[in-house]
Amino acid sequence: xxxxxxxxxxxxxxxxxxxxxxxxxxxxxxxxxxxxxxxxxxxxxxxxxxxxxxxxxxxxxxxxxxxxxxxxxxxxxxxxxxxxxxxxxxxxxxxxxxxxxxxxxxxxxxxxxxxxxxxxxxxxxxxxxxxxxxxxxxxxxxxxxxxxxxxxxxxxxxxxxxxxxxxxxxxxxxxxxxxxxxxxxxxxxxxxxxxxxxxxxxxxxxxxxxxxxxxxxxxxxxxxxxxxxxxxxxxxxxxxxxxxxxxxxxxxxxxxxxxxxxxxxxxxxxxxxxxxxxxxxxxxxxxxxxxxxxxxxxxxxxxxxxxxxxxxxxxx
Length: 316
Description:
7-stranded parallel sheet; Rossmann fold; globular; single chain; 17% strand; alpha/beta; UDP-galactose 4-epimerase, domain 1; 41% helix; 316 residues
């Protein structure tokens, strides 16, 4: 792997960004993290990384950081499909305009050779079946979050072509793992674990037969590192998932069996803007990048459970 003089990781104090920053440091890269700590946590920042606390939408903050970055991993985002429905202006400001601000800084500085964007399965239209969908599946987002991510991809591709910078868009599916910040809206694995550890049943929205592709954060990091080594002058898009589908009912059963045998989930009305079927066809990333998921939901839930236990015990 080539060592880069400077890697900028936006959102690097967050769930995925902190894991990525750790791996980049271990591979010998110099890492600067930009995070406003609205969701990310200072304690997530790995030793050896420089932390700059600031807003990805602020040109005065972003400009000097991009001017010394050979590669930008753009993970900073407001990640909530449900919240994007009611707060679409805030969603667009952070997710779209934050990306545009970074790209503008890249175009001005003419230093960055690679721009890797954390995109989302939310760019896709809903699928009629739980069969895996590839990158050519229709991009018709059903929530503002997906609209912003799709527009960010398109801006990145346009700027890359105009400036000669390489751009790779990684469409993450449902990521899970240690350090996922708990909110009532994002990260169903962590939400279910927290409820069960607190003596409450998981709450399944809808009938629970919606199907998701749960991908471990370590595999997301692997995809980013492989994208870093890709040398293609044309912008590229890749699904990043496990390639396997799991229904929410199956997830609830797995966690109930582990943490509270005999517990049955409760059911509530579904929320608008959420896909029913979303499973990744990862054959393109597998063949072009060498991406090969190493984690599996059934055996890697225990790591999430243990992390949540520690977090629960440390809360006052």
